[in-house]
Amino acid sequence: MDTAGGEAPIRRELVDTVLREMGIVDMSQSPIRAIARVASRVEQASGVEFISMVMGIPGLPPSEIAIEAEIEALRAGVAQSYPPLDGIPSLKQEVSRFVKNFIGVEVSPEGCLPCVGSMQGGMALFMLVNRMVKGRDRVLFIDPGFPVQKAQLRALGFGFDTFDVYNFRGEKLRERLEEVLRKGRTSAILYSNPNNPSWICMTEEELRTIGELSKLYDVPVIEDLAYFAMDFREDLSQPGVPPFQATVARYTDNWLMLLSSSKSFSYAGQRIGCMIVSDVLAKREFSELSSFFPSSILSQALLYGVMTVLSSGVAAAPQHGFAAILKAANDGEYDFVADVREYGRRAAEMKRIFTENGFEIVYDQDMDRPLADGFYFTVAYPGMGGGELLRELLEYGISAISLGATGSERTDGLRACVSHVYPRQFPLLEERLRAFNARHAAR
User: Fold this and answer.
1) What are the E-state strand segments in 156-205?
2) According to the model, what pLDDT value does residue 354 have?
3) DSSP H helices in 237-335
4) What tens digit of pLDDT does each residue of 311-360 get?
5) What is the C-alpha to C-alpha distance for residues 325 and 339, in angstroms, rounded to an integer?
6) Which of 8, 103, 142, 289 has its CA 20 to 30 Å from the CA of residue 225?
7) Element (H, E) at 62
8) Whole-angstrom distance, CA of residue 133 vs CA of residue 29
9) Where are the alpha helices (H) located in 191-253, listed in sequence order?
10) Is it the case that residue 1 has pLDDT exceeding 60?
11) 419, 59 in Cβ contact below 8 A?
12) Does a cis peptide bond (omega within 30 degrees of 0) precede residue 58?
């Protein structure tokens, strides 16, 4: 459809009808999957191909190494039995090696517990940390962040605190963290690194600050490594060779990690991730845990009190597939980072298209460094709030989510995911944004 002069390819009435039928009034706070459903229904009804930047779904094929390992495991009969609750030995061993080789931190295989994706891992850790110390039942999010984690806490009946870290970088971070930690209600500190959605990365000094405060206030840190090694400004692809993935684990023993297979390994469909618990924290006892779980020892409470009620183990074949990928990476036979660098290339081109058509990058600096190009970036259009911008872009066959839903203070902005915007769509994106800008620039 012709978009010359700013004409939108989709009728406003159609978008309004879909929003009304789904009961959506304010798109700025709509859940990710609700927005994805809106875009899908508008696309089906209009026949206009959408440029979808909503879901953080990998857009690259998985490694054949994992596929072949799963097939071999299934043929060997793993499907007939329940898998070990704490994971198959080969996966536990390879996760331990991976942490050593790519993070530069030692952890025993016993502390590496597979989960049904980091989503389940996060749910499990929330059930655990909020019952470790009586009166500490609020997770502190260093935001922006993944909206579903807050939804998990709401579903469990726990609270949370949050602040937008972009305004508290460097030395300011300590004071802002202590404002919350002094209240004595914090059960854990959680952040993603690189950050979803801003794509900023914690500096070593900031991680040192978080580590020191975790020790001072005895509050564990949950490090969400959903986008492992995807800060493409550094080459993090060589096992056992610095630089390593940045981590708070160098500055405290009071940590837990969530390692995902979804983005860095393009293995989202198999729902396999891993919780990693520091050797020191795993052995600690918290008397309050025994009020809810069979043991007061943290690792035992997590395994036999939490994981056993969530699932009868993680599916066996995906464990074998993930173990095979990690082994190949650990042995230097598979460069998993090389595959996902494609996201950085897409982000750079998409940022150019947006900024040349009236948009601004919301989070554009990482302290004194230019922001990396990666899985996500953030945009805003002058004079528009996030919900309004989402609504207007739907008429141009473009979908994203509001930054307001991520805990960002920049409620005028959107999170754009690059994974399902393919190079063949770049000319179409440019055409539609040019039309959008022509229509709205004179407002």
Assistant:
1) 159-164, 186-192
2) 98
3) 279-283, 298-300, 308-310, 316-330
4) 999 999 999 999 999 999 999 999 999 999 999 999 999 999 999 999 99
5) 13
6) 289
7) none
8) 32
9) 204-216
10) no
11) yes
12) no
